[in-house]
Amino acid sequence: MPDPSDFPILFERLKNLLQVYESRLVVTDNTAENYSLNTPFSKKFNKEVFFGAVKINKNYVSYHLMPVYIFPDLLDEISDGLKKHMQGKSCFNFKQVEEGLFDALDQLTRTSVARVKSENLL
What are the tens digits of pLDDT across the range 9-54? Predict the structure, then answer.
C-alpha cells in the first residue's frame, strides 16, 4: 500500500521534470498538489494547448504529458517498465520514486518538447 505522506516528495520530483520548461511554456497551476503547463498561444489551435501536469491524487501521483496523445509515435521507444505506469493515453501514475523510470520520463518529456516545437506549437 502506498504511503500518501511520501506523495509530496514524489510530486516535487516529477514536477522538476516539467519545471525546466517554464521559460518556453505557460504555468497555469502551481500549488502544493497540482502543477500544470500549457503551450503559448497556438495559431494552429487559436488558443493555448495543454502540455503537461503533475497532480497528487488519493492513491498515486500522476504525470500527464499531452504530446504523447497528440503524437502517439512518441511512445514507440518507451520501456515496458514505463508503459506499465500508463493510465490512458497520456498519463503515467506513480506510487513511489523510481529513478530509472524518471530518467526515461525525462527523456520522453524532452522529446515531447522538441516535437511540439517542430510542429510549431511553441
Answer: 999 999 999 999 999 999 999 999 999 999 998 888 889 999 999 9
SS3 content of the chain, % helix, strand, coil (to 5): 40, 25, 35
The Cα–Cα gap between 93 and 91 comes to 7
* 122 within some domain: no
| 3-state SS class at 52 | strand
State the CATH number of the domain containing residue 34: 3.90.1150
Question: 0.90 exceeded by the pTM?
Answer: yes
Phi first, then psi: give them for residue 101, nearest 5 degrees: -70, -35
